Amino acid sequence: MHTLTLRPRTALAVMTASILAAGTLMPLPAALAQSAGQAASSRDARVEPTVISADGSATVSRAPDLAEVSIGVQASGKTTSEATDALNRAMERVIKAVKDTQLAGLVVQSQNVSLYPEYERQSDGRQTREPKIIGYRASNTIRVTTSDVANVGQVLDKGIAAGANQVFGISFSRKDDAEARREALVKATADAKSKAEAIAGALGYRIVRVQRAQTGSLGVRPMYKSFGRGEWAAADAGFAAAPTPIESGQVEVSAQVSVEFIVEPN
């Protein structure tokens, strides 16, 4: 008589059978390692890091090394030719006077030229029902740039003395603000980190690493000077009798950053 003995399958046999049944043929140690890795990855995916977000900003100031002035001439005449001829003669004198200052890095560039009719108006200031042209007004504006910031007032003084009757203010800036931008970014980042550390400390956490960082706006704010009037008569010697005092001030460069920090309990 034959006796059939049934023995329980070992864990190794069960694992081997399972792998073969799934259609995956690989060495057993590799299968075990893969299974363990998948389980660990699954656990890690379920654990979200604690993140604190903070915004930082900073502004640095630098002395300007570039000045820009816009000046011009406005002239009137009964005809277009009369208005433009008067304008052109005056502008030639103004441009020559500005160039004669011989300031460092001086650049003169035409900015705006216009010609438009003037209409008859009633005594109360309203336009008549049937517009009637009584003359023409022409204007020409130039932009003057110089690196001689301290003496930019000469552009105004010489230009006005030569016949300029329009001034649109002065602006000061920097030729190269890359270094100031970098400094502003470093300070803005430090500001964001300081804020995040304060929040984390109050909650019983500490910063362990940065998850994400991005820059916000980077801006340069030129210094502007206005003289309160856009135009005056060339004969207004009260304005140009003394040298025009100019204060260049400071150019401000600002930066903003947003940073996400991963934190852990203390």
Protein topology:
Blueprint: H1 11-21, H2 28-46, E1 50-62, E2 66-77, H3 80-99, E3 107-119, E4 133-146, H4 153-161, E5 166-173, H5 178-202, E6 205-221, E7 223-225, H6 237-240, E8 251-265
Keywords:
2 domains; elongated; disordered N terminus; 266 residues; 33% helix; alpha+beta; Alpha-Beta Plaits; 3-stranded antiparallel sheet
**Overall body shape:** elongated
Low-pLDDT parts are 1-26, 228-239
Helical content class: 25-40%
Q: Compute the CA-based radius of gyration.
A: 38 Å
- Level-2 CATH architecture of the largest domain: 2-Layer Sandwich
Distance between the termini: 74 Å
Number of domains: 2
- The portion of residues forming beta strands comes to 35-45%
CATH superfamily of the largest domain: Protein of unknown function (DUF541), domain 2
CATH class of the largest domain: Alpha Beta
Please, how many helices?
6
CATH fold annotation of the largest domain = Alpha-Beta Plaits
Number-wise, the strands total 8
Strand order of the largest sheet: 3-4-2-5-7
> Biggest sheet, open or closed, and with what strands and sense?
5 strands, antiparallel
| Arithmetic mean pLDDT | 81
- The SSE string, one letter per element, is HHEEHEEHEHEEHE
Helix/strand/pairing category: alpha+beta
